[in-house]
């Protein structure tokens, strides 16, 4: 409240620090906020308060934004639903019997229900985009390392910090406040702090590839129709939309172990020094993941890294022929809470490859399948974050305002909350 009062006085003097001055921002509980503990959704984490902000939080605070609370996550961000031993199950704001997605489910729900217009989240395989899709909000995974992560939040070499918001313009404003001035090795398509200023430039003349159902992915019919209508919108906006089978992605799906091998090994490393008593406190899903990673031999792990490099190179070549790629964000709707069904335990096929390639990708609501939101995923080459945001904004304006869920939705069934 003190920070809000200071922001109010700056606005009244006509001297705000910027458009985010005084704006409340929630922060996923994998990211350090000074004065609050970072619990990682785990009963094994220290309850001690942090002495310093993570770099992205510090930049938001410097821009006048007010971090007001931490949002729930699966334990250490390990899976695509948000339930964990520490806080129990987070529920979908449209149907509380279902998951909002994960691992940034708390951030998605906070934004969807108006607890704060912005949330800082992380995405290691779809953890921003999947809950954005299932919760009906905007979630943007930037080019890898565009937003400074700090040592504590970049341990997988796949996870990227990014904004969740009610609309694309707000996400762009938040990104402006957080970014590095440059990303080593990859040219940016806009100057630093220029994402929001370029977001309304439209899509006329762009070459956009539309991949409705990549090889081996069975997209449910109602979702497929909803996303296809969204893809058609880009043609009406003046872009050249071409349906395409994206070979590099198909090859990636054929090598489905690429992401799962790396992910499991990273989590095996994450818990390997834990005391035995701490290991008994872990989410069984995380323990099973870590145990699988401990069985991966060096040659298999290196093969997965080589496949990752090949995918990145292939997508660089692909984006020489087109400017953007459209896909569904997820192939089906959310599962019931708590838990993660067996058929969703593999790497999320439509999102995880973007982390492997390091490319920017956004999920923007594009309608409903039944009573649940559907997400359109827009993907660009490395460094083309401004273009991805611009396309998402153009679609958003053509779509019109997206409804918000009922804040009084009744919670049904077992809460799944840990004691």
Q: Which helices and strands appear, and what pairs or packs with what?
A:
Layout lengths: L1 H11 L11 E5 L26 H8 L3 E6 L11 E2 L3 E2 L15 H8 L5 E6 L5 H7 L2 E4 L18 E6 L2 H11 L28 E4 L10 H16 L3 E4 L3 H8 L2 H15 L4 H4 L4 H11 L3 H21 L5 E5 L23 H6 L3 E9 L2 E9 L4 H15 L20
Helix pairs in contact: 5-13, 7-11, 8-10, 8-11
Protein name: Amidase
Family: Belongs to the amidase family.
GO molecular function: catalytic activity
**Uncertain residue ranges:** 182-187
> β content, as a range?
5-15%
Quantity of strands, as a count: 12
DSSP helix fraction: 25-40%
CATH architecture: Alpha-Beta Complex
Walkthrough of the structure:
The chain is α/β, with parallel strands linked by helices and 419 residues long. It has one domain (2-399): Amidase signature (AS) domain (Amidase signature (AS) enzymes, Alpha-Beta Complex), CATH 3.90.1300. 34% of the residues lie in helices and 15% in strands. The chain contains 13 helices and 12 strands. The chain has helices spanning 2-12, 55-62, 105-112, 129-135, 168-178, 221-236, 247-254, 257-271, 276-279, 284-294, 298-318, 352-357, 385-399, and strands spanning 24-28, 66-71, 83-84, 88-89, 118-123, 138-141, 160-165, 207-210, 240-243, 324-328, 361-369, 372-380. The strands form 2 sheets. A 10-stranded mixed β-sheet has the order 2-1-5-7-6-11-12-10-8-9, sandwiched between helices. Strand 1 (24-28), helix 2 (55-62) and strand 2 form a beta-alpha-beta unit. Helix 5 packs antiparallel against helix 13, helix 7 packs antiparallel against helix 11 (298-318) and helix 8 packs across helix 11. The longest helix has 21 residues, at 298-318. The radius of gyration is 20 Å and the shape is globular. Mean pLDDT is 92; it is low at 182-187. GO terms for molecular function: catalytic activity. Residues 1-23 are annotated as: Disordered. Residues 1-18 have a biased composition (Basic and acidic residues). Residues 4-389 form the Amidase domain. It comes from Paraburkholderia graminis (strain ATCC 700544 / DSM 17151 / LMG 18924 / NCIMB 13744 / C4D1M).
